Amino acid sequence: MFPPQKPADPDRTPTVLNSAELFDGTNEIVIVHKGVSYRLRITRQDKLILTK
Predict the structure, then answer these.
(1) Mean pLDDT over residues 14-29, rounded?
(2) SS3 letters for 21-44?
(3) 36 class by beta-carbon count within 10 Å (0-12 exposed, 13-18 middle, 19+ buried)
(4) Are the CB atoms for 28 and 42 separated by under 8 Å?
(5) Are 39 and 32 in contact (CB under 8 A)?
(6) Beta 28-33 vs 48-51: how paired, if at all?
């Protein structure tokens, strides 16, 4: 269904994303990973919660 994934390169620096740019003024975004949707939201205490 999906192409095979390459193993992660342990020496590669992870991509850094700024949450303000990622959320773009909203409190929730949806991330689709391998066909499954996940919700990433900012709580009232300004923490991040990821749910399936």
Answers:
(1) 95
(2) HHHCCCCEEEEEECCEEEEEEECC
(3) exposed
(4) yes
(5) no
(6) unpaired
